[in-house]
Amino acid sequence: MLVSGSNTEQAAAANRAMILSAIHRGGPISRTELAAQSRLTKQAVTRIVERLLDDGLIMEARRRHGLRGQPAIELEIDPEGVFSIGANVDRDHLTIVAVDAVGTVRGRIHHERRFLLPDDFVALMSDALSSFRRRKIIQESRLAGIGLAIPDWLGEVPVIGFPPEYRRWNGYDVRGALEALSDHPVFIDNDANAAALGEIEYGLGTEIDSFFYILANACLGGSLVIDGVRHKGASGIGGEIGWLPVVFDEGPYAGSTQPLGEMFSLFILLDYLQQKGVTATTPSDLLELDETGRNLVSAWLRKVSVKIAQAVVNIGMIVDPEGVLIGGRFPVRLIDELLLYVHEEIARLGAQAPSLHRAAGSEDAAALGAAAIPLAHRLGLPSAEPEQRLRNPLGGHPLQAPDLVPA
Asked: In 195, 238, 250, 358, which residue has its Cα 20 to 30 A from 221's Cα atom?
């Protein structure tokens, strides 16, 4: 039997990462508290803290008064210690954010563009990086890297309005294209996984350890988090709730089985409204509808809530997470309305289900999660995954994509 070992350098790096992670999640925190949590000696903690202070990654925030003896000095992550850039490209938009070490957005560039092609994506990314540098939003020397959140099979899944030229994404070396724009490391993950990571670090994940994240964007995605770590499954595609089979209850397709993503997504809603003679092409348009449009949206949300409720109940029985989160590009008001209907349906069923929540990340969830990836690697957080430095978007979809069915 082989047993993994460690040398002095590895142990020191692990201890440094442990202390930095504790400050990130628990700050403001004192050296004494760090020693108690880490089970290192106070002298060892002091040495690590001094090096982190010298590196500019943490700062002494204030003294904690009200206790006996010398007031304890509290430590926090220094917002200026490291920066990150995160991008989310999808079938209807490109969002790029620059954040500091505590996840505060310092700059945001958004393009509401449908079916953006690879060359245009790279050009817009180059412009955004230049803009962030020119406006001194980030310190280049402290940039941890560029994170990209991108749907797998982007150029393969036949969504509504899919143009033939969009297949250029198939096999496109997006990692190589981004690495050509910057000397900093590039990290890539699925958009739902990235959104879940953002929730782990900056959202409800700071309060609950296990949850299922439903990402409602142009298409539907999901990610499972267990004990604060994303669980991707044996083949790496765990959480693909958009392909969960559900049965149509009415209409010409009644009784047939289709993926949940063919019933619930932003594109499905916008297409439904168009069929009803209501013009809406972006999420913001959904907030400006007249009474007729609002009533149509409410009726659609109530209808899909039945299938979402069934999915939530099934997730609860199989995984038993502490909660199910719904986030993404749907306006907050619509997500809240959907949650209300889902709660009502679960109550009507008399079923046991995890608690339901609106995700904290909202419409920029995937971009913020993408920015969290380089930070996690730079700060040595448990959520950092080595494959993000090598991964490209998946191609060759393992499931046979069905023909599109009207909502």
From this structure: 250
Give the integer Cα–Cα distance in Å for 178 and 196.
23
The first and second tokens of residue 277, run together, are: 């003679």
Contact 376, 336 (CB under 8 A): no
pLDDT band with cut points at 50, 70 and 90 for residue 14: confident
**CA nearest to 226, candidates 191, 201, 200, 203:** 200
Mean pLDDT of all residues in 330-334: 95
Secondary structure string (H, E, C) spanning 45-101: HHHHHHHHHHCCCEEEEEEECCCCCCCEEEEEECCCCCEEEEEEECCCCEEEEEECC
What three-state secondary structure class fits 161? coil
CA distance 105 to 84: 10
The two structure tokens encoding residue 28? 């403001």
As a whole number of angstroms, the distance between CA 107 and CA 100 comes to: 10
Distance of CA 65 to the CA centre of its chain: 38
Contact 384, 376 (CB under 8 A): yes
DSSP string, 324-370: EEEEESS-HHHHHHHHHHHHHHHHHHT----EEEE-SSGGGHHHHHH
Report how far residue 112's alpha carbon sits from residue 52's, in angstroms, rounded to the nearest whole number.
Answer: 40
Cis peptide before 28 (omega within 30 of 0): yes
Give the helix ranges, DSSP H, for 254-350.
266-275, 291-318, 332-349
Q: 330 pLDDT exceeds 60?
A: yes
How does pLDDT run across 229-241, given as a tens digit for each residue? 899 887 777 888 9
Paired strand residues for 88: 95, 149
Amino acid (1-letter code) at residue 62? R
Rounded Cα gap, residues 129 and 105, in angstroms: 15
- pLDDT (0 to 100) of residue 382: 82
| Rounded Cα gap, residues 358 and 335, in angstroms | 7
| Most distant CA atoms of the chain, gap in Å | 76
Residue 135 CA: distances (Å) to CA of 17, 124, 125, 158: 32, 16, 15, 39
If you average pLDDT over every residue of the chain, what do you get? 89
HSE-CB of 183 using CA atoms within 13 angstroms:
3
Q: Running DSSP on this structure, what letter comes out for residue 155?
A: T
Rounded (to 5) percent helix, strand, coil in the chain: 45, 20, 40
Q: Which residue has the higher pLDDT, 265 or 396?
A: 265
Tokens encoding 31: 């050296």
